[in-house]
Write the structure tokens for this entry.
Amino acid sequence: MSDQLDLWPEDAPGGRIAWSVSRHKRLGDCLRKYYLQHYGSRGGSKPDAPAEVRDVYMLKHLRSRHMWVGEVVHEMAELALSAWRRGDTVPVAALVERGTRRMRAQYADSVQRFYRDRPRYVRGLMEHEYDDTVSREEWRAQHDRMERCLHTFFDLEITATIRETPVWQWLALESFGSFDVDGTTVMVKPDFAWRADNDRIVIVDWKTGKPRPNDEWLQMAVYGLFARSAWGLRTEILDCRPVYLDTGEISMFQLSDDDLRTALDEIRVSVKEMKRLAALVVDGDLDPEAFPKTDDVSYCNHCNFRRVCVRP
Ligand code: SF4
């Protein structure tokens, strides 16, 4: 799952918390960033919003070049799977060509800063907003990574298995879902899930970056909670597989009820903190000082809010 949570509605004052793994991660990484993403940008899509709020809203939608490649690869994988579901064929070369066109068009939009007027709909890259020095070779390397990931996607045995599986055994294809934890909505978007011939359920997450076992364990456990809640499945029949498309590695998580209990506890602790912070935000009287900046300054170099944050 790429960080596509901007597709979900903005928080409303006093509304339910919409918990997700990426929101939880942001909470742990930097509270100031969490504040800017979820509160400082609120209402920034409205034409009459104050300039600084519109600016934060625009910054929130920026992607790094690495995240951008991940989004394009996910989109192309979804296109291929949708075509296979219809019974169509998709040559990998056609998909790479489409991904290349998408990257070229989005790069051109970004370099001309078109995203500034329509940040939610036009892809903007942090490197352009911040005039970061990125060589042509590095941009080329990102395109090559997209191409490599798509070739791996086509070549993997797990993809061949999916293609041979009747579509009535498919359970989810990039579909948004949610379940409730004590009055909080937990949002998920599994990349793909199907019922295997041995009656086990396989949930796949396409990854374009490097393995991050701790983050992945929580994400897989949250998928497990979703599968139990939405599909009524027993934990012991779930196989969760992060698939690393840049290298072709596949991890395997076989979840236990203990895993799901631990994940639920983690969600509850996280939600409690999110609710505490939400209570600090009185509409019209937002206090960013209640949301301190991270001590890890190296993290700031990759932050989309670094201009408005202004350390220390
Ligand atoms: S620039 Fe650093 S301190 Fe500021 S919001 Fe981003 S990560 Fe947090």
